[in-house]
Amino acid sequence: MDDAFNVTFSENLTFYTPYNRHMPSNQAHFLHLLDEIDVPHEDTKQQFGRSLDIIGLTVGLQDLSITMPKDSKSELVSAICKFVHHPPLPQ
After folding, report:
1. DSSP conformation class of 42
2. Cα dist. 16→12, 36, 71 in Å?
């Protein structure tokens, strides 16, 4: 896994110039460190707030919930039904 997570209760924001936006100060400082040691990172993965999208699931940080989008639920149910009715042959 190449993702890093952090929790902060501070509301201090810092402007991170490469992404042209404000973000929690600890997060901006971490990105500056990654920049200094040439570790790549993506703007779209720099999330913060009361809910986060992690591997296609919405994680609610206030109520500690995890929600899967409806279309993903449908795909999962279809895949399970297909597997149960037509399990793969042993190899």
Report:
1. -
2. 13, 14, 34
